[in-house]
Every structure is written in structure tokens, then in C-alpha cells.
Amino acid sequence: MAKNGLLVGSASRAGLKVIATLSAAVITCGSALALAPPAFAEGSVLSPETLITLKATPAVQIVLAEFSAKVTIPSWDIDKPAWTAEATDTGSVQGVVNAVAANPSKFFVPAATSRTKNASATFQGSGFFVTPDGYLVTNAHLAAPSEAELKVELAKGVLKQIQNADISSIVNNAGTDVFTAAQLKVLAKAVASLDEKSMKVSDVVKKFSVAVGVGIPGLSTGAKTIPADLTVAGEPAPGKDVAILKVEASNLITVPLGDDTALNVADKVYVVGYPGAAEISQTSMTTPALASGAVSARKTLDNGLSVIQTDAATTHGNSGGPVLDANGKVVGIATFGSVDPTTGSEFAGINFFYPVSLIKEFLTRANVTPAEGVTTQKWSQALTAYDKNYYSEALPLFQSVNELVPGAPIVQEYLKKTQTAIAEGRDQTPKGIFGLPMWLFALIGVVLAGVIVAIVLLVMRGRKSGGQPAVATAGAPSVYTPAPMGDPVAMAAPPVAMAAPVAMPNPPPPAVATPALPPDPPHVAPATPAVSIARFCAECGAAHEADAHFCPECGHKF
Predict the structure, then answer these.
(1) Are the CB atoms for 251 and 132 separated by under 8 Å?
(2) Which of these, 410, 417, 374, lies nearest to 394 by C-alpha position?
(3) 275 with 395, same domain?
(4) Which run of H or of E encompasses 152?
(5) Which residues of the chain carry a pLDDT beneath 70?
(6) What is the pLDDT of residues 535-545, one digit of tens each?
(7) 409-423 and 374-387 helices, crossing angle to 10°
(8) Which domain holds residue 556?
């Protein structure tokens, strides 16, 4: 609304703009001080590959699947007529051995008795946590192997005992001088093939655990196992080779899931896991290995499942480990390699991983949502600060992580490295102003801005509830404030034009009685108190008393 040529409240709006601008400036400056690296900071301490590996290392663990069962295998008798006929035809012991190796079921027959043994088998691979409360991703062929694979692994220990008894029986029946040591090995292999085909497995008990590294200052690093439960599992490759385990834990460090559809051929990938061939000591078994390579191709299996080929060197034990992209996010799970069908040996540089989209499918089945906890955030922040030589900033973060996941070897290692760097004077953490950190000034700026905004809001709320405050504006007419009531004659006269004074007859006419007036109606201002009225000289206009006969100024006679 316009008043006296100015907008009422325009000065307040301008003030609001100024306050808003200052608040934004304070916040921006504070943030810049807190986030901007100092000019004297040197380059990174860690390579990108090392940083990616370190961030993922505490989340990648050894996964153990232990199976125990009863194995029943029939006893074997030699089919003597078959042996005799073969010996007659070939005319040599070696001829008989070759014939038995080619068709063992022709020369051995089940006996009336059988042998039952307790057997066990342990599968070892890798896995990685995706939630702070213990959900872990691994391969199905590790947690839920096929019946045929399980039977083979269970039989390995038992068959050695049984085969020794079978060979002794063969030697006793044929004579100790008939077969050489090499021929006996061939015969033992033939009997083992019969055992594997005819054995029966029963009363299978499964037990899962996660082996995590435990480091105690001053002592060697070891491993402890945490029991795990199988939540959901697919089928071994070429099936959907993914399984989800759950351990009872909290504050675990996790790795984030990425997007495999963003991968292109030749993109860099990193596989973190525990290859069995790298386990050279009890201490090293808790340290995951890094295999880096590139995406070689995308392939489709006969069942329509998509897999990604890489030249990253992986082997047994890597199964279930995460495949990371250049940003350290999981884009797949290491699963299988290529094997030479003639020799059974692995082809180097031809390995495959299932895409992360399949992992997400199984997490959905298990009703699990990947999450990052406070420990992961602090671990990442600590490594980032360490990488910038900000050791004083990294130290309390490493200490906090060590409290949340006590005993983690990699955490203790970098906690010690940080303390050493500070002691050697290599710390380059920004000191801020007056020795105070920059983030403190940023925080103060944000608090001040919040206080200013709160004051503005209170002022605006007051205007809405009680009207706008008076604002002095240039050019507005003066407003007179009445002086306290006193002697009527002594009061300053208002600066208005007055009518010419009229001569009053002397003596004044007698007062005429005025009839009483009715009381004032409501809402009418009260009457002004009666005062004596001054008279004025007709010659000079000076005031004088009502009963005066001469003007006190000019002496004019009334």
C-alpha cells in the first residue's frame, strides 16, 4: 500500500534480501573452507587400485561349507573266471591289468557285505557382506553343491581307506609277486571308479560359517569362524549360481552394489577373494588377494543366462568373491573358469562371472535390501583422509572403526600406519584458522545462518499477527506530540492560521445560563476540560486578562 509516495514495508523486503544473501554467503564460505583441500597437500598415498581393494577388503571373507554324512560302499570280490579267461587271452599280467582298467565291472562283483563309513567334506570359497547385520553373498556351488559333486567330495577320504583294503584283497588272491607297484595303482583306480558309482550317501548334515581375520596387537593374526545360516540358494553353474548366507553380527563393513549394464568390453575390473593356492600360512589366509583384468566379452549360456568373461586371473577359492568396477562397486560374482577337457587343467585368462543383476534377484528373494552402515562410512572416510596424508583426520576414524569391528587385521594395520606417520611428522591435515579445523568454521557459519533465518521468520510472523511496524520515511510530514497538560496560556499554539481577533466589549456581557445537554452517546470522545479563554488587544493582538482595562503591550484602552 502506498503512503506518502513510499511503499510501506519496502525497507523490510530489502532487508530480507540482504539477510538471505548474507546467509547464503556464510554457508557457501563455510562449506568451501571445510571442503577445499589445502594448497600444500601432496599427491595421493594410495593407488586407485589399492584404495578400491582396501575399501572392500573387510567386507570380503572366507566362506566354509562343511558337510558330514554316512557313506555306504559294497565290498568287492574278484570274478575269477573272468580274470582267468583274460589272462589266457592276453598271455600276460599287464594285459589283464589293462583289461581291468578299461572295464572294472567285468572283473569285480559285489560281495554279500557292505562297508559304512562316516565321511566329511569341506568346501571353501569367498563371499562378501552387503548389509551391516550380516547378509553375505556367495556361490551356490559352494553352499549348495550338486548331489554328484557332494558324493565325490565325501568319498575322497573314505575311498582311500577302502581302496587300501581292496588292493590287499587283490594281492592276497593273486599272489604278492604277480603285480608291480605301478600295476597295483592302476587296479586301485579301477576299484575306486566302482566305489564312486555304487556308493550311497545318507544322513547329510550341512554346516556353514564365515572365517574372519582376528588380529591382536603384539600377537599373530588368526581367524575365527562365525556360524552362518543358508537363506536362499540357486543351482551350481550353469544354473543361477548364487546363494545368500546370514550371520548374527552388527556394524559390519559392506561393499556397495553397482550396475553391470554399464560395463563395456575393455573396462577394468577387480576380483577380490581367497584363492586356495595363495594360502601359504595361517596369517595369510585372512588376507584377500586382488586379481585385476578387463572385461573380455559378454556371453550367453545354453540356458539363456548371461555371463561376463574376463582375463582377471582367478582360480579355486575365488568363487563367490566380488567383481568390482573402477568405482569400487560390485558388478558381478566370480563363478567359474574354463577347463581343458583333455587334460582337466584350467585355461589361464578365461574366467567368467555372473552379473550383479542376478545377485539382486536373489537378494529380493531373500527380502534383503543392501545397505551401508556407519562403520562402512567411517572406514571409507578414514581411507580417503589417509590417501590425502591427512593422518590426524584419519586417526580418530580408524580408531572408531576398530571399536566397531574389533580385531580386523586390515583396520589395525592402517591404524598403526597412521600413528607412525603422525609420529614421523608426515601429517598434512589442514589446521584451519587460529589452529582450529575448517569444518568448525563451516559449522559456526551454518549455525549463524540458521539463527538469522529464525529471527526473520519471527519478524514476519509478528507482522502477520499484529500489523506492520511503523517505519520512518524520508519526506513524511512532521507529527506533533502534545506536551503534558499545564497552564493553558503557557501551551504552545499549533502552527495553523488564526482568524483576526475581534474586539470584545468592556465589560463583558453577563453569562447566559445554558440548558443542560444530554449525556454523550457511546463511542464519542470525552469533552475537553474547560479553561479560561484569553482576550486579545484590537490594536496589537496581544493577549490580556478578561478584566484588564489597558493592553499590557501597547497601552490601548479597552
Answers:
(1) yes
(2) 417
(3) no
(4) helix 147-174
(5) 1-43, 173-177, 214-222, 277-286, 432-443, 446, 459, 461-534, 544, 546
(6) 777 777 777 67
(7) 40
(8) 501-506+529-558
